[in-house]
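Chapter summary example.
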Amino acid sequence: MPRTPEKNQKIKDERERSLLKAAFSLLKEKGLSHLSFNELGKRAKVSHGLVYHYFENKDDLVKAMQEAVKGFRHAEWGRALRLGSFEGLSVITSFYETADLSEMELSFALFEVNRNLKNEKEDRAFGPDPLMVLSTLLEQTAREELIPYGDYKEKGRALLDYLRGYLIRKETNKKATFDKAAFQKIISY
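The structure predicted for these 189 residues follows.
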């Protein structure tokens, strides 16, 4: 008996989700500039030709990835930057404290913090640089005399390092919790 159009659509949707999960996994490990359709096919256990059936080129893949994490990405880092100062830092803290991240969002979040810890300036397709956002927010907060003056880039790196550790714990143990007090301590040192 031939498959129904609904069954075909379900298979197509599952395959696309599998390709996106593999793409986020590779993004986390290697960054966008080192992501190839051949490697993506291997990771998703499909031929690289099938990858081209779903994504015409890397730009098309990036658009699909952006769409997959749109709510996660733009709602938090961009919102924090718009709010500025301590309020912006609170947005980031609250998000990580309460977030129930999907597997793709978790991979993307690890990519976000890792690209900054490696000092990579690639992958601008995904919006503002988290280190720049944190450094800007820390500097604004210090100007308002809510935290001591200091090396904001260094504090930003410390915060990203903390977020990275939390996300790695979350990846291995879904019940890992975000320690708001530790995050606040880094801000205040």
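To summarize the output: The mean pLDDT is 77.
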